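hi support,

uploading two proteins for the ticket. first:
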Amino acid sequence: MTAENESPAKQRKPFPWKSSIGGVLLVGLAAGVIVAEPALKSITTETATFEAPVADVPSADTLLSCAATPALVNTDATTDSQFTADTTEQTTGVSVGVLSDAGSRIPGVSITSLAEQSALDGSGESSATATAKHLTQRIPEKQATQLLSSGEDGTTNVVGKNLSDSRESFAKLAAQSLGNQPTMISGMRTTLSKDGDLAGFSSAPCMAPSYDQWLVGASTATENTSILTIANPSDSPATVSVSVYGSTDEEPQVGTLDRLVIAPGAQYSMLVGGIVPNDPAVSLRVQSQGGAVSASIQQSALRGLVPAGIDTISSGVGASTDTVVPFVWVQSAAATKSLTSGAEGRAGTELLVSVPGAAAATVKAVATDASGTKHTIEIPNALPGGRTSAVSLDSLPAGSYSIRVSANRSIVAGARTVRGDSVTRAHDSAFIAAGERLSQRQLVTLPEGGNPYVLLSTDDAAASVSLRSLGSDGTLGQAITHKIAANSTLMVDTKLFESSRSFVLDTSGGAVYGGGLSVSGKTGVTAFTIQPSSSATQGIPVILP
């Protein structure tokens, strides 16, 4: 793939963002029956059979959490006024895409910064006051609960809107439900820094909060900095436990992260190196009770004074015996060799596999390139239980791959990509998590400021896909359809979307997995996993006594 030259960025200017949002919360109701005593005399002993009624439950706002702009670790030390480790040329922001209902109504969308929590028990004061910014006008609730199958003219017409916000903090996106159905929304945090210790290209999809999530591939080795952030966008306190899976026999010092309480609307950050120091391959499992949370890791590297990569590690699919890492890019062997020379920890492109259980796992991996050709990845030994292992992918020919990983025990997987051609010049890295099977329809928002690519792949059955761009005027473009053979891939040319950074992706047939990768300048690279949409709200059967 080729990289474009970027014009100099103005200081911390926002991209021409286009926006989105998503998430669902269900509340169940129970019904009871009181029968007067005289009525009991007329009841027979015969059994009556009838279908349980279905109670329609209103859908709450769809919630997504968007990671913060990568930032240096706070210190009180002063520096020479002629030198700063921080960036002086940075563009950052959140881009969002949102779809209407069948009646062309755009739901209300808001974004709110999450406060920094100063105490581990959730009782500390926050450093910011949460104020929601409305990106679109909220529809009155009485009207919003009406389910429309068409517009006022009798036609069904789904439209959309591109939204943006330039804030740098961890944020909550909220999208109003229409007709008691969850809104289809997506968001992407993108940061492009031209200089400073965190120079590089970083992106992170806005994620739905979860009670159980995995973050694969952090490094606390020399020259690396890893910062874990856990955010609670819900209205309830969250009690969080973090499990650590390193690559060495050193016992992690989990400490207060065993029962960490995070207040509603707050987020808490800490250095992963404080839990498991000097480890080149670390995975974290974040579990929550009470409120659902969103977790991410800011991963960066500095080789002497040379920036060596910045990205955000987002959560992926949970433990399974069969999983897919949807997009891994391998650069030329010559370029990678120059980067790995003398590197501490790790420096090349790698497949990262965690084995949650105590027993070792026999793991097999097959990489399928953009033309459908398969390459077996050599993993000669069983991977140890309770550990994270890094498998080099530098022997693969240069190109783009989807990697299917299977094992005799449950595993969690991800990958790390590198881009650059000299150890003495700035280079970059990108992390991507294994992904879930895509749903029938999802809205995808691409990173801003680079040249994005999308790779779709199938498993044992063929599938069909359809893509429609979301234009600046809110209309959906003409459908671009493709058929993907079983166990094959499809590289999507996003230039067909012109200036649009959001598109609707429909799938049918067999399972489809998707990932994206974007490049900027000579060395910038970032990757992300395409998230399936939230499932439609369903009625809840009510069993009467």
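and the second one:
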Amino acid sequence: MDRVQGGVRAVRGFLRERSRTRSTPIDRYVTAFCLLMFAAVAGQPVSEVLTGLAGPAGAVEPARVGAGVALLALGLAGFLAVARAAGPVLMTAPDASWLLLSPLDRRQVLGRTGRALLMVAVAAGLVLGLGLVAALGAPDQLAWRVLGALVLGVSASVGAMALAVLARASQSWQAWLVVALAVLLVVAVVAVSGQARGVLAVASAAPLTAVAVAATLAAAGSALLARQAWRAFGRIPAREIAAASTRGGHVADAATGIDPGALTWIVEDNHWRGRRLRSRRWPGLPAALATAWQDWPGLPAAFATAWQDWRRLARRPGRLAFTLATAGLPALLAQAGGAPGMLGAVVLAGGLAVAASAATGARRDAANPALARLLGIGHRPALAARAALPALLAALWTSAALAGLALTSAAPSQPSATTAVTTTATVPAPGSATTTVPAAAAAAAAAAERATGGVASGADAHEAGAAERGLSLAEVGLFGVLAAPALAAGALRMVRRRPVDHSLPVIDTGAGPVPLGPVLWGVTGIDLAAAGCLPALLALATAPPQPGPYLVAQAVTGAAALAGYVLRAGKAT
């Protein structure tokens, strides 16, 4: 083993001596300086959040605890899924081309990769640990509880990374990875539904002894998984490492050239490359619809080219189900205490992303206009036909997300018994300075005052919340449907945009120089979607008592945004 390690060190030393990009002390100094600056910038807000969680004043509401734990479970599931998709064991292109197949010990060759994966897992675990403290709170012994949460978070992320490595070496571990993903999703659903409120309350007030035991067990389990993953480095097939290295090289090239648009091509091509399609004939149109279809001679040919987007979507039902399931994320963020502005941005970004995910055909038409011209179809009919599917998905997702937000805001708060008994409120009393009363009584008095304005109570809690906001559930969903054309127009503009123009000037601002090319590339598509959804955003922000004019304005602006973009894009092409 010593001889093998010496061989690997000799090869690494030989490569370092003849490398054109050797690491210098200046490079290490810049890296350390950037890390210290990041710690200094992020340390102040993190310390303020942790200080606010200390003591009984920092107790978290039960509903927010469930939403926070659900977000952490989804975050860990996302980390595990990304690690699984990325490889996660990969090397640089030169090492993968000849060092991987050399007679050297593969575990020693992949030593750098293992250390890099460990660092990534530790960084993600620290974020999870801070999120766990923010979700559960720290009633006492802040420092020890933060330390225990950090150990739990790092253990979870390291174990997830080790499980992703083991899944590449064995099919049995691959099954365990799928089970872990399913368990995390079930935990998220149970936590957000409120069924585990008692368990979460016990976890929030757990003694330090229990926290120490849980952290110790989690660290031991993650260490065991990490050891198994290190042993499995030598059993991972070379083709798996080579494929992951190729994907990593493409991502590195896109990041170095500041061309994020290339990432979509990488993901799409990697999914369909080498797959065997099992197509089935779809049922034909009904007779009445087929007759109406023939009355529009230009539509059948245009929709024939767009039909591939529908077939591509049908071939990936899991992706479609996952996309629609993410419509509950805005409501989850609202339960966790998200700001209204952030929630609006999340809904807009989510609807735009969902619409863009179904606009692959428009992206390929823009990348290869000669092939589109050979089809003998006008650019405007083809683009209009390709906008149908993004608009449909955006309507479904946005209306579901807005309906979830409406139901979340209309749901009455249910404080725990401990909070209702121990928390007090002060209200002025006649003839005295202040009088201390139970918080539950204060909340009841506030509810009575709201009821004098005509708000119902009891079984009509949902209608009461809608009356307070001025928007009913149907009106909120209708806003999502009417915003779909604008989101589809923004998605088409986004997927058809050109690469980043690095020849544009750099603007000097108070925060430093800002390159204009990446900024313009980033806002392309978002600008059109935001302008087209402006009436809906204003209505959701102000909650007018008569939303009819806003609905009409949203219908007009959404249709105008899509029609204007199709006409302008067809003319420019």
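thanks. also noticed: Residues 412-469 have pLDDT under 50 and may be disordered.
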